[in-house]
Amino acid sequence: MRILGTGSFLPKKIVTNAMLSEFLDTSDEWIVTRTGIHSRHVISDESLEDMGTQAALRALQDAGLQASDIDYFVCSNVVSNWVTPSMSCIIAGRIGLQCPCIDINCACPGFIFALDIVENRYKAGNRGKALIVCVESPTRMCDWTDRSTCVLFGDGAGAVVLGEGDNILGVRLNSQPDPTKLWERRPMESTPYFTGDDSQKSLQMRGREVFKFAVGASTTEVEALLSDLSLTKDDVSYYMIHQANLRIIDAIKRFLGEDDSKFPTNIADHGNSSSASCPILLDECNKRGLFKEGDLLVFSAFGAGLLSGAAALRW
Ligand code: UT7
């Protein structure tokens, strides 16, 4: 497939590190040095479906298409107020899509898993256009008295519209399943019979271990993907890395031996927006005219699961 349009949406409330240090034992200095984050957009009166709808409409507008042109819709979302119907059905209803809709929960690499799904459907003969929306509110997963998690995240939505083309050159997906490194639990409804564990816990992360996984998975997968495609690092125009921590991006850059100028970032004023991070970065770079036709973009993302993925596409 080929990307025909991009869109994104950020909630209006901006929370700076100084605002966090008013109620947490933290500082701008700690957060900036350890993560590269200065501020983040945090959901207030917006809903996830509002954000996903706006990002989708902007991507459709950028592609010059209508909702009726879309034949398949994948929504990446970790958690929302809606258990059912799926977030993809809710957004589809808002924008007037009438096509198959599915949700995936692949955490931060959700955009790359979604690309894999639409590309493989296309290769299997479903030649229509696809919409991907990644919409996330990790700030609603954290305990806001826990300084080790809540300072890291921001909310938002990113979307792409894809159509006919052979610009997705390759995707690599991976897992190292381990529910102890990055997780959150919520209780379900009680019944007269259920006697199991229904405990609740806000987002928990073993930061250092996830950091190591992220750097290892990303560098290994990017190198393997380029080798699968008989490409070299010299062919790569930009690395679009999941915006989890500037130090993770810097470490990946060092391991790959690549130049700063190939790594656009927006973590400074967005924080980590889970699967929305890559498509928001893509949209912002697209809208500021960073890419030229033919540029090779290599995406890499990693997160809960633990899951990771890399994708190479020609702009
Ligand atoms: O997108 C999903 C994937 N997630 C990631 O990729 C995140 C990966 N991990 C990370 O980015 C980093 O591990 C963190 C940013 C989460 C933490 O950085 P770190 O350098 O690994 O710090 P640490 O967890 O080892 O904590 C160092 C110290 C601790 O204090 P002591 O025990 O040394 O006294 C923490 O209690 O920093 C303390 N600390 C804080 N201090 C001020 C933790 N959070 C804060 C804070 N402000 N917000």
Written overview of the protein:
This protein is of the alpha/beta class and 315 residues long. Helices cover 33% and strands 25% of the residues. The protein is built from ten helices and 13 strands. It has helices at 17-20, 28-35, 48-63, 87-95, 110-123, 147-150, 207-228, 246-256, 267-270, 277-287; strands at residues 2-9, 13-16, 39-42, 70-76, 101-104, 129-136, 156-163, 168-175, 182-185, 201-205, 238-241, 296-303, 307-314. The strands form four sheets. Strands 1-7-6-4-5 form a five-stranded mixed beta sheet, with helices on both faces. It has a four-stranded mixed beta sheet with strand order 8-13-12-11, with helices on both faces. It has a two-stranded antiparallel ribbon with strand order 2-3. Helix 3 (48-63) crosses helix 4 (87-95). The structure holds oxa(dethia)-CoA. The site of oxa(dethia)-CoA has 20 residues, from helix 2, helix 6 and helix 7.
H-E order:
EEHHEHEHEHEHEEEEHEHHHEE
Identify the strand order in the major beta sheet: 1-7-6-4-5
Cα radius of gyration in angstroms? 19 Å
Mean pLDDT, to the nearest integer, reads 97
Poorly predicted sequence stretches spanning 5 or more consecutive residues:
none
What structural class do helix, strand and pairing data support? alpha/beta
What are the bound molecules? oxa(dethia)-CoA
Terminus-to-terminus distance: 11 Å
User: Helicity level, as a percent range?
Assistant: 25-40%
Counted by DSSP, the helix tally is: 10
Main beta sheet strand tally, sense and closure: 5 strands, mixed
**Beta-strand percent range:** 25-35%
**Which outline best applies?**
globular
Number of strands: 13
